[in-house]
Fold this sequence. Notes:
- It is a single chain.
- The chain is mainly α and about 270 residues long.
- The protein has one domain.
- It has twelve helices and no strands.
- It has helices spanning about 1-15, 15-25, 30-60, 65-70, 75-85, 90-110, 120-150, 150-175, 185-210, 215-225, 225-240, 245-260.
- The N and C termini lie far apart (about 40 Å).
- Mean pLDDT is about 85; it is low at about 265-270.
Amino acid sequence: MVVRFSIVSIVFLAISRSARLGAKFLFVAKTREERAFRKNVLVLGVAIALGYIFQTVGLLTTTTSKSAFLTSTAVIWTTFISLFTGREKLTVKLSIAVLCTLVGIFLMTHPFESQGITIGDVFTLCCAAVFGVYIVWVDKALHSAIEITHDEHSATMMVTSTQLVAASIILLAFMPAMGPQKLILTPYCIGALAFTALIATGATAYLQARYQNVVTPATAAVIYMLEPVVAMLIAEFFLIEQISFAEVLGAVLIILGVIIAQVKTSMRYEV
């Protein structure tokens, strides 16, 4: 994770003046706008770092399926955080979308095949909670960056790169607590690091910061739950894994939840 986040941070700093400006504000922020940006982007950096740490440590004592399901509860945390911060109101449509999505993920992941609650489950729930904070705070960070740059693309580059720089520093600080570290660079490892750093982290973080403000945070969280559906399809076509009827039904419910969340209604019923 340290190498992955460091690679993408260095690339952003090398190619973008806005990225370098954002990194400067991490250490020197003079105006009110600059301090607001630093505060919001630090929340994102801490959320990313803690989310990955909690999820990875949780996987040591919980199953992959339970981890996937518990992490997906970020859709609930995002909704509640949005309500608490006044970002949106809970509607019947959104409640149905969240419920469909969670039932779908439950069917896809079979989380309770192994019984009992472990400390890993608790860590994974913490992971979901901080990811919920991250989704909500992306909009806040972008707004504070726009106040500085007055340009959406430059603001997006500032938010994307600076949060990753902050996350890299935090993850690096945690490394001594994780025991002895050893990195063996093989061609497969280098390829995996390049893909996860540039595409799975850099490109997706930029797209999320640039376009998430088109929808509400809770709706965005529902859309992000398409991830296990895409993973299932990739596994089916490229890894020749067998998909059960329950998993297919779960995927359909997730897609249904996303569609419901996106449907425009002329009347809003608050819960």
